[in-house]
Amino acid sequence: GWAGGYPEIVKENELFERYYRELGIVPAGEWDAFMAALREPLPATLRITGYRSHAREILHCLKEKYFRELQDLEVDGQKVEMPQSLSWYPEELAWHTNLSRKILRKSPQLEKFHQFLVSETECGNISRQEAVSMIPPLLLDVSPHHKILDMCAAPGSKTAQLIEMLHADMSVPFPKGFVIANDVDNKRCYLLVHQAKRLNSPCIMVVNHDASSIPNLQIDVDGRKEILFYDRILCDVPCSGDGTMRKNIDVWKKWTTQNSLQLHGLQLRIATRGVEQLAEGGRMVYSTCSLNPIENEAVIASLLEKSQGALELADVSSELPGLKRMPGITKWKVMLKDGQWFEEWKDVPSNRQTQIRPTMFPVKDEEKLKTMNLERCLRILPHHQNTGGFFVAVLIKKSPMPWNKRQPKVQQKFPQKPGDTEVAATNSDNGSDCVTEEPILAENEDSKKMQELQNSDTEQSKKERVCGPPPSKKMKLFGFKEDPFVFLPEDDPLFLPIQKFYALDSSFPKMNLLTRTQEGKKRQLYMVSKELRNVLLNNSEKMKVINTGIKVWSRNSDGEQFGCAFRLAQEGIYTLYPFIHARIVNVCIEDVKILLTQENPFLSKFSSETQKKVKDMAMGSIVLKYDPDPEKPDDLQCPIVLCGWQGKTSLRAFVPKNERLHYLRMMGVEVFKAKRKVEELENKTEEEVQHMLAQTEERMDVEDKEHDLVTKMEAEIGEESSQSPVENSAMEIENKIEDLDQSSKNANCHESQESKDTGASHVKD
């Protein structure tokens, strides 16, 4: 509606229609419905984080409050339908509406619902994710002990699902499994970090590699080095994205068959590298947001053919009941962007053989084609369930790939010369279409390779417990230089006061604590699982790690005088809590409301029980624990653990703004801000609120660095904008919290989370 604005994109593409009509991927009589669906905006969908103890409460809040308020509402002449759960998603944890994301963002009538979604997304309790994008992680069939690789992970919505599945049992703070999330784009890796950090897991590592040549990693197993093979691999490859036309309308004018022809080779190389790193009996899900068989069935057929029986397509027809799907196709043709068709490789003229490759054509041998079971692939069509278009194939690895027949479960050794040290060798780090079954090295190459590995080992011994970025001689460093990951030595004097102050259990895995500084004062302590520690320590020379670990303690200069220089961090409190035996204060529901709505309340405002508990407790960081009372079903029925600080006369919670709002919503407290005005909980006038908000917004500008990064990146890749709580120290948190009870006070300086200006590439969900 802007005068002189951008012209509206015409949702027509003759070549697209001609191509897919000819291929027959849409059932007879459904073409008009298929095209009509593509021209409609994509409806908004959301997924509740399933492993959180608060999932039931959020679901109840959604159904009983926010969804009810949408009934009989009309927006821009369109009647708002009640949101419906996705029938195929387990436990009613995914929902869709008939509202487009644009309407949801812009409509005043929906502002309250939209703010709820934004706030809960920032807390990590809800993910606004396209419905079809939720399918691949579900079909991976993840268990908490699985080692998982996400090969092309950014922007991270599927990675978040995988993390949730690892933490299916919330009583286990450190699952045995982990997720290594990779992306080739250094800048998009930071969006991936942002997404993963919302879930506060010690079992996620973000790395930056080309997925088609992601290196073999080693782990220590009972004192010997073994190659790491993954139990589950998600291979959601870069694609032409013609299944995303409903949200990325640029595809309408840019679509051509050339996109698929150019991407096919890369997709096949990434998938090949994936199956090489898959453990025997493991499962890999290959997926694209494209409908094109050149990017889908052609890649799978080529992979199956060269695997010589090592791989098979899994029959997942009984999984996700309620999901409408089309079977994979077995016949297709290849078309150039000028509209010229080819049915077989032999028909392709020599001057076109660089654009079109033999692997793009279907298998002609009927027997071989039959054994491939390509019909076991899934294609999701937009008009069947009001979604985007999508393709999924589930592969099972039955035996080593034929070119890796000696796939090592144990180390392989090079020939030794007198005085040489025994060195383990890995398979080639590069997945390639042209691979020999048994690569043979000349003697001088053996010596060279052996020397490199010895140098690597020597370097590693120098840097014991230190994992930094790989040296430039081994890999060209690009993007932002990362700080090293330094594990705390067992005898580090830093840990003893912490252990004593919080009475940590003897089972606390202190060897898993790390910092990001090699020299100088350690400001933050992070924690990873034992398994990720193993990966970090054994692969610092070959892996570019962007981020791992959750923050569990932050240095607080005021704390040193009270016996401990480190305060607890809310981000890692649910991981730490099972090991803490001191400084825990159990609070009632009314105390929780005071803690979350008042900035620095006096002790006299709390219940007499709470006052008694803290009376003889030393000043400093504390744990505030709320346990639900089954005899009061109207109260919040899920436990809450908060980080707090006990002063001389006051008690306060150090919880990020959106997490505060989340807990207050779950307790039935109204926290809606209408047009950036806070509706005060205790009868404050609108003028007071505006004055308070003006002061607060000035203070909150300092955290916009990370928010600007995420907003910019998500706008470019078509994701909803969301921001996460920024890390702050104990005396700094007031810079972040929007005071819901009293006028704000002067704020201290704070450290903002590291961020980088970024861009994005490739169409991904």
TrEMBL record:
Keywords assigned: Coiled coil, Methyltransferase, Nucleus, RNA-binding, S-adenosyl-L-methionine, Transferase, tRNA processing, tRNA-binding
Active site annotation, chain numbering: C289 (nucleophile)
GO biological process, one term: tRNA methylation
Stretches the record annotates as Disordered: 403-470, 715-765
Amino acid composition bias (Low complexity), ranges on this chain: 409-418
Cited Pfam families: Methyltr_RsmB-F, Pre-PUA_NSUN2, PUA_NSUN2
EC number: 2.1.1.203
Protein's UniProt keywords contain Acetylation: no
Cellular location(s): Nucleus; Secreted, Extracellular exosome
Catalytic activity reported: cytidine(50) in tRNA + S-adenosyl-L-methionine = 5-methylcytidine(50) in tRNA + S-adenosyl-L-homocysteine + H(+); cytidine(48) in tRNA + S-adenosyl-L-methionine = 5-methylcytidine(48) in tRNA + S-adenosyl-L-homocysteine + H(+); cytidine(34) in tRNA precursor + S-adenosyl-L-methionine = 5-methylcytidine(34) in tRNA precursor + S-adenosyl-L-homocysteine + H(+); a cytidine in mRNA + S-adenosyl-L-methionine = a 5-methylcytidine in mRNA + S-adenosyl-L-homocysteine + H(+)
Keyword RNA-binding in record: yes
UniProt-recorded Gene Ontology molecular function terms: tRNA (cytidine-5-)-methyltransferase activity; tRNA binding
Residue runs in coiled coils: 664-695
Residue sites binding S-adenosyl-L-methionine per the record: C152, A153, A154, P155, G156, S157, K158, D183, D210, D236
Biased composition (Basic and acidic residues): 751-765
Compositionally skewed regions (Polar residues) per UniProt: 424-433
GO CC annotation terms, alphabetical: cytoplasm; extracellular region; nucleus
Chain ranges of the SAM-dependent MTase RsmB/NOP-type domain: 34-398
Similarity-based family: Belongs to the class I-like SAM-binding methyltransferase superfamily. RsmB/NOP family.
Name of the protein described by the UniProt record: tRNA (cytosine(34)-C(5))-methyltransferase
Organism the protein comes from: Pitta sordida (Hooded pitta)
